[in-house]
Amino acid sequence: MEYLKAFAVGGFICLLAQILIDKTSITPARILVILVVSGVALTAIGVYEPIVEFAGAGATVPLCGFGYLMAKGVVESIKNQGVLGIITGGLTAGAAGISAAVFCGYLAALCSKRSKDKN
To answer: pLDDT digits over 32-71, tens only?
Structure first.
């Protein structure tokens, strides 16, 4: 049942993003920003936490989940460090995921076929 809930919620988030791509002239980069900011905004008003508790990875894996992670990290860091936590909280919370993405991108670049310069 846990997998079904994750699939339904994650699929719904992706469906909303796909509708934005298909039905509007908003660029994909702006849609990505909208998803991250919506995760932060929904976390700030207390809506995203229950969604995460219900769906688990279905809510934390999409880009809204990255916004949720950043907002949650800032809140925790402010509690521990004060005003400095505004800057360090999001960076600390997202460091592992960002590092993994950079590392995997580097590995993919090493394994891919290089295009030769035409000069």
So the answer is: 999 999 999 999 999 999 999 999 989 988 888 889 998 9
13 and 59 Cβ atoms separated by less than 8 Å? yes
Taking the C-alpha atoms of 42, 44, 45 and 48 in order, what is their torsion angle to the nearest 10 degrees? 40
Name every residue whose Cβ is closer than 8 Å to that of residue 98 and which is 6 or more positions away in sequence.
Answer: none
Q: How far apart are CA 26 and CA 24, in angstroms?
A: 5
* Helical (H) or strand (E) element with 117: none
- At position 88, the amino acid (one-letter code) is T
The predicted model gives 7-13 an average pLDDT of: 93
Report residue 109 as tokens.
Answer: 């670049």
Q: How far apart, in whole angstroms, are the C-alpha atoms of residue 70 and residue 79?
A: 14
Those residues whose C-beta lies under 8 Å from the C-beta of residue 50, and which sit 6 or more positions away, are none
pLDDT score for 3: 93
